[in-house]
């Protein structure tokens, strides 16, 4: 069973702080990794994709990948109340499927 | 560029009925994947279509089926509906469905089975 594990939270951070979201995956054959944001009642929205070890930055978001540890993370700098949502980690695994974690609920407190 | 569209947005059916959901991918995208999202099971992969062929299938019963047309639009069908089929059904499109392709989701169809 290929799995993607996330802390379900909820995670609360004050406005302006750094929010750190973590994810582990079980399939070593996973080739690419994605972070999606999902607001309540809406569909997932792609934030970041990462394919190789290291960091990838896009605005206030930084994705980190460590294939040896089978670990992916997302850092949100200068968190805003509008960042309050559920964040889904996904891996494109060896079965050619996008497998999702259960999501981490983030609340940014004003 | 228009995003992924799904119709209908909401649907109410009774047990035993069947339902067909429709998805139009982003222009130029040829791969369409379908997912089921429920509070208990999260987001689960149903199947993926590319060039009118089902290329991959998740762990769902045969009551769930789909197809893709030559213009890349896709439909999924659920027959003999059960209460547990109540969920948000999402389709996502990508260029060709390769590992490096990013998938973009439509707004979803909320299915309620009574």
Mean pLDDT of chain A: 95
- Tally the beta strands of chain B: 11
What proportion of the residues of chain B is helical, as a percent range?
under 10%
Q: What would you call the shape of chain A?
A: globular
Helix tally of chain A equals: 0
Task: Provide structural commentary.
The complex is a heterodimer of chains A (110) and B (114). Chain A has 110 residues and is mostly beta strands. Chain A is 0% helix and 55% strand. Chain A contains no helices and eleven strands. Chain A is globular. The N and C termini of chain A lie far apart (40 Å). By secondary structure, chain B is mainly beta. Helices cover 0% and strands 53% of the residues of chain B. Chain B is built from no helices and eleven strands. In chain B, the strands form two sheets. In chain B, strands 2, 4, 5, 6, 9, 10 and 11 form a seven-stranded mixed sheet that branches. In chain B, strand 4 (31-38) and strand 5 (42-50) form a beta hairpin. The radius of gyration of chain B is 13 Å and the shape is globular. The N and C termini of chain B lie far apart (37 Å). The A-B interface holds A 31-32, 34, 36, 42-46, 49, 51, 88, 90, 92, 95-103 and B 33, 42-45, 48, 55-56, 58, 88, 90, 92, 97, 99-100, 102-108.
